[in-house]
Design goal:
The complex is a heterodimer of chains A (417) and B (483).
Chain A (H helix, E strand, L loop, with lengths): L1 H15 L2 H49 L3 H7 L2 E4 L19 E4 L16 H6 L4 H17 L2 H8 L2 H7 L3 H31 L3 H25 L6 H30 L5 H15 L4 H11 L16 H37 L3 H12 L4 H26 L18
Antiparallel strand pairs in A: 1-2
Chain B lengths: L2 H22 L1 H43 L6 H7 L1 E4 L19 E5 L2 E2 L21 H17 L4 H5 L3 H6 L4 H32 L4 H28 L3 H30 L5 H13 L13 H11 L11 H37 L5 H13 L3 H29 L2 H5 L4 H7 L20 H7 L1 H25 L1
Antiparallel strand pairs in B: 1-2, 2-3
Helix pairs in contact in B: 1-7, 2-4, 2-7, 3-14, 4-7, 4-8, 4-9, 7-8, 8-9, 8-13, 8-18, 9-12, 10-12, 12-14, 13-17, 13-18
Classes of the chains: A mainly alpha (417), B mainly alpha (483).
Chain lengths: 417, 483
Amino acid sequence: MMYSIAQIKREWQFMLSQRYVLALLLCGLLVSVFSVVTGISEVNQQRATIERLKAADEIDRAEAQEKYDDPGSLAYYTFHLTYASPSNLAFAALGERDIYPWKHRVRMLALEGQIYESDAQNPELAQIGKIDFVFVISALSPLIIILLFHDLVASERNNGRYDFIVSTAKSSFALWGARSAVRFISLYVCFMLPFVVGAVISDTAFIDVLLVSFMCFAYFIFWTLLSLWFGRHSSSAPKIASSLIGIWVLFAFVLPILGDIAINKHIESPDGGDILLVQREAVNDAWDLSIDTTMASFLAEHPEYDYYEELQSGGFNWWWYYAFQQVGDQTAGSLSVQYRHASVAKYESAKYVSWLSPPLLLQRSMTRIADTDAKAAFEYENQIREFHKALRMFYYPELFSSDTFDKNKLESMPQFK
Amino acid sequence: MSVGMTTNAVFSVAKDEWRYWVRSKIAVSVLIIGLLLTISSVIVTLANMHELSHQRSSMQNNAEETFVDQPDRHPHRMVHYGHYAFRVPSPLSILDPGVDAYTGNSIFLEGHRQNSAMFADQKQGTGLTSLGSLSPAFVVQVLAPLLLILIAYSSMSREKESQTLSFILSQGTSIYALILGKGLALLSVVGLILVPLAIAGMYAVTQGESGIVVVGFLLAYFFYLLVWALIVLLFSSLFSKNSESFTALAFVWILLCIAMPRIASTTAATVSPSSGKLETDFAVLAELRTLGDGHNANDPAFAKLKASLLEKYNVDKVEDLPVNFRGMVASASEEELTHVLNRFAEQSMQDELAQTQISRYFGWLSPMVAIRSLSMISAGSSIETHHRFLREAEELRYSFVQSLNKVHVEQLSYIDDINRSKGEEAWKKARVSADNWQMIQDFTFETDAAETRLNRSIPSFLQLALWLGILAFGIRLAGRQSL
């Protein structure tokens, strides 16, 4: 025991004297700090945006509600903000939030015509991606680990100290083990410390911090062991490092890209544009169709309004207008479902590919915990659909009623979240 | 020493270097893998972009046909029926698809609204290509430098480590001839990597791309790889141990190719956050409320228009006007509204561009950032081209809406128009012939002119030139030091 501590102390002193090791550690620390600081700033910006939107949305809706009295116009002129707030772990895994929208305003018109509107971020920045903590760990840390661990044995051999060191150390494990442990712990601390500080600032759940720390630990161990194993006896350090970087390229780029091509070939999806086209034709044609034709389709979903004929007046009827909006959604419904299923199927199949690629596996796992992955975006879309439905359920009874609308009822209008 | 002898010496050094690579096998296998990756990326991307291009053109034609095929209608119905614009990728997108998958590629065009582009391909992606995609641009920008490092990290340091350097120098080969020779060998590798790109570039020319742009594009990649060849030579000359040279180069690659581009985009997003469409929409809405509602000809906002028309035609009521007053109102309000919408749209594009510009400044710090911008700008797959698409789609929208309004003004009587809701007969009477729908223009999206793109790419060319200059100077110094 005493021997081990002495050994570790010696290795610690030794590491402090090696400038290039210190430089790599410092780089790891700096890039980790950068990712955490900008991640927190991004999340704060997203939250502030949501707050501003909420305030503006409320004012806008209040104005519309002030101006109109009948349920038809009210439903037409009031928009509703929906949003998905970033989680407390999002700062470390910004995930797909720059690709999928996390804010939307909808109204009671056909949803298929509205839901694909996207308020995406700058595409040129999204294309290269952001440097969040997940990226730092999954992509950058393996490279630093490779540079730190591939030549533990080879460098000593190169320096001609190898035989001397091996003969003076009590066991080879005590020697290489102590050196590896010192480097490993220093590196782990350099990368994780900024994350932990960020997590405290962001009020992240303790269990999430623990889970992320554990996953990163396992990931570090994987790359360290791989580097040590590759470097266990070969004498040419650059050859070892080349092979390791080659493996990294394989994991980070080649396998995922091949998987991506295979999945895209395999899973058929209707074209998004077609959904919109079908929906538009249905809604537009309705103007020229008889009310009964439209209502027949509408009643298939809502038989409770089969008394609509009593309400019919010579002119324009709002209930008819909203009925054909819904029929538009119904017509495009199966295409839309297929489209969504294809999206989910693609993302789910990617899970199997990610098992072959540790960096992607780590990214998927962390963005899942942080609720910033494509799955979270799909869930958000479902929430919007649910909300739209609730909105329709609120207005339909009023639209299909000959009584004057009591505006106090607006207070019980469904709210998003 | 004569020039001829020096040239000979350079060539023989280059030949020796190749001989060493072939013997060591690693270099050759790395080279073969690299070439295979480049070639397959060219083939896959070419097939992919070709299909997209085909698909979108046919959807554009389809949209035009369905529009023309609509029956007789009230013209304003067609304003809301709307139209589509599709962004067909530029010919050079086969080498750099750029933002294509990250922006929507179709826009629904209708009256009184500017919709955003929908259905970005990336939204239906697997999420597997977040670290890199199989595009020639990515392969050459990120992986080719690594390939050059793996092949040539030891080109100079090897001679020092095995102490053959002094022997070579004593044989009469100058240090510069040695460096030049090694550089020449490396240059031939660069040439090999560029061959598949050049072939695809020629194909792009047959697809209508300007020859000068393709030459500029290839030249940019040549400069970029030259920068990396020089970086490799410089570090290899600076260190006297292979392992040190390798570690240093690997580190530089990680920094410049993997970390820096993302640091650039993150910095841009942090320093200059953009407000997003939803937030701008509130501002637009507030301003639009001050204008009149174009559906309501009685809106007081149009009183002035009414007065001037009555005076112009010297009549007392709008019913007596030779033109349809409701159509005039629709047309006037569309014009005003478009004015407001365009002002806000232009502003948000400028904001987005400013944000992009910040990330492009990082090209001074990383040649990878420089070539990335240069490549997308030349290929016509950068943010500017997408903005151009947005502007052209808006022009198309405005022109078809106003043409319909013109039909509304000239071909539909005001009396029929206001009586349209009075029974089946009146509803049918308030229509114009479907022949009018022929006015829809053929829309084919074309990338910016060659000159525009070349002008835009000048800053990035300068960034690469600076890198070349500094590195050449550095190698001179290192060469002197090695003597």
